[in-house]
Amino acid sequence: MQVFVTGASGWIGSAVTDELLAHGHKVVGLARSDASAAALDAKGATAHRGRLDDLDSLATAAEAADAVIHLAFNHDFANYTEAGRLEHAAVKRMLDTLAGSDRPFLIASGLASGVPGKPLTEDDPSPFHGADSMRGGSENLALSYAERGVQPVALRFSPTVHGMGDHGFTSALTKVAKERGAAGYVDDGATRWAAVHRTDAARLVRLALENPQASTRVHAVAEGGIPSRDIAAAIGDYLGVPTVSVARADADAHFGWIGRFFGMDLPASSERTRELLGWTPTGPTLFEDIAAGAYAL
Predict the structure, then answer these.
(1) pTM above 0.85, yes or no
(2) Do residues 218 and 208 touch, judged by C-beta distance below 8 A?
């Protein structure tokens, strides 16, 4: 299968590219720089030069593919609304291109529930609709195209997709802890994050690609809800610094941009995903990666 992958040289996307190539698929990866194009070529993938705001380029690559996996996103936290609008426009253009073809369209999404404290399941719809909502409402936009001859699958990734070389949320928390001399958590630290190892997430994406009708939503969740105080304690143990509580009112000042996410309760289940796709996570846990130096600075 020839698969067009946006974000193919990113943290999750590069692992997905490796997984697809290892199982006989051909990968055409969106590359916005010479370095990204060279990295894809070195893996045996084909680079397609372009950007998320180049809608014609996205449509051309989608039209030529047997399936699309959309993993790219402009993480501009200073202008998140505009990033969502760009996402909405890019997703809509690719979906319009695939309409009537019965081809799979897999889209990266996150874990967000409208019911605080309740673990999110695959049956729970996303509360975000429209271009001005979180991530441009792209999950619901994609799923709406099931009625227009596309096979959409929402790939809901854990807040932390961890592994050696991760520069995401846990890396940001570790950097703050080192700078502050203490590993913090918000209030009583009871809020939870789901987690998954990068290789397990990549394998899930491949399984969802090969079985696109198995589920419209799949959860890349290995650990369903790790208390934030335990994450902070693991970071503190690794760095050799104390663990402290930070009042929610002071979270932005203490943590910076990562504080708004670390204070969110984001537990989730992947029971249905495991049953439908035969997916069993086998990679290291988040704590094992922290202890092994995945977030050495």
Answers:
(1) yes
(2) yes
